[in-house]
Amino acid sequence: MNAGKNETLTLTPIAHIETDFEEKFGVPRQSGRVEELRGTLIFEKEYAVNEALRGIERYSHLWLLWGFSLCRRRIWSPTVRPPRLGGNRRVGVFATRSPNRPNPVGLSLVRLLSVNSGKNGPELLLGGADLVSGTPIYDIKPYLPFSDCAPDAVGGFASDFEDYGLDVEIPEELLSKLPVEKRKALWGILHEDPRPAYQHDGRTYGLSFAGYSIFFSVDRENILHVTEIREREKSKGR
Amino acid sequence: MNAGKNETLTLTPIAHIETDFEEKFGVPRQSGRVEELRGTLIFEKEYAVNEALRGIERYSHLWLLWGFSLCRRRIWSPTVRPPRLGGNRRVGVFATRSPNRPNPVGLSLVRLLSVNSGKNGPELLLGGADLVSGTPIYDIKPYLPFSDCAPDAVGGFASDFEDYGLDVEIPEELLSKLPVEKRKALWGILHEDPRPAYQHDGRTYGLSFAGYSIFFSVDRENILHVTEIREREKSKGR
């Protein structure tokens, strides 16, 4: 059965999400691990319709379908090397959530915290959104507990089940530079170990989060030490 | 933040699914209720690559992203009237899984039963696929138990939680016309009540399933009676 011409589908964003991640580095790779992360979903003008959200507040969780940011020449790779497996193991792309797939649409589960009125229409405050700020959103779907949760599901590789995480130490004088509501989230994303899988050495990294630059290194005992926190310059509009 | 030109995304099918549903009527509206349903996912030539599926057998469940069959003029409706709510209640489209959404991509959870070699490359045998045969598939993702299952999720309308279903009576002489492996699935889809929400009367319906035409009506006690089962003519190729 060949794909007919009329089976292509062009998606245009219905919204964008604003989060504390200006760049990909630092975004947790496994969705759902850092609950304190917050994002605001702001609708594009054509879709900023209150009626389209009627009843959504009945749902505690939502699905987001969104666009991976890729260079325009889309290449898909039959196999990829997931960072969480150490970066050395090749796995079929359809056995991963990697962006390097033929149709690069991301799927994320988020918590619906509130539906608000912004200056340009309705906005959704979301919890647990592991997305770079500005990510285009193609669809929002309610999470249907009966249909979408399979408690008997099994899957993954051995390393998926390890409780891998770094001990994180942030000196009080640095932590106090952050707004209170961002501190637990920062601890969470550092605990997840943002470093590339192939670079587990003692070098210093800089991560951008919530308008701050966070500098850290990981010692031989796998303890992450934050060495500096500096406020970043505000970007000139978005 | 306006949608830039480069945020549109064009999807082309990577595969199609073959199921026992030649048409939409009879496909269960709530995904996951009829486990006995079977579908075979067959890849488009360009994507029929064994390596792309390496490791997928480790996952018991998968997500399918697929295309709703719509007339070409795409219209989205801010509100819809979900059949399962009786067809009379308007709900925001983003609070439903209705096709009438701006970017009509469907999301379904299926069980991965086996990875097989077909004559044109790898094929996936899937369980619980509530899709019309021929539906284009845009993506396959592994179901990640930790990230995708939210056991504490709540949502929906009161009628979502009712254990609504019809008692189904199929005379033995009719049931015996069906292959054994299709009988439980037929019972399941009839139990789900395929009738339009606004048409709960005693008329006779004809449903197509697994190559058979199934005729039935529902009496005043909400018992569904199958009155005829006939083998359909084989369609001349696909």
Could you characterize the architecture of this molecule?
The structure is a homodimer of 238-residue chains. Chain A has 238 residues and is mainly beta. Chain A folds into two domains: 15-69 and 104-142, Beta Barrel (Elongation Factor Tu (Ef-tu), domain 3); 158-231, RelE-like (YaeB-like fold, 2-Layer Sandwich), CATH 3.30.2310.20. The first copy, chain A, has a six-stranded antiparallel beta barrel. Chain A has helices at 145-148, 158-161, 172-175, 180-191; strands spanning 9-11, 15-18, 38-43, 61-67, 79-80, 91-92, 105-118, 121-127, 136-142, 167-169, 205-209, 212-218, 223-231. Chains A and B meet through strand 1, strand 4, strand 6, strand 7 and strand 9 of A and strand 1, strand 4, strand 6, strand 7 and strand 9 of B.
What keyword list fits this structure?
six-stranded antiparallel barrel; 238 residues; homodimer; 4 helices; YaeB-like fold; Elongation Factor Tu (Ef-tu), domain 3
Most extensive chain contact?
A: A-B, 76 and 76 residues
The biggest beta sheet of chain A is recorded as:
6 strands, antiparallel, barrel
Q: Specify the number of helices of chain A.
A: 4
CATH superfamily of the largest domain in chain A: YaeB-like
Please provide the count of β strands of chain A.
13
In sequence order, what are the helices and strands of chain A, one letter per element?
EEEEEEEEEHHEHHEEE
How large is the share of residues in beta strands of chain A?
25-35%
Helix proportion range of chain A:
10-25%
Q: Going across the major beta sheet of chain A, what is the strand order?
A: 2-3-8-7-4-9
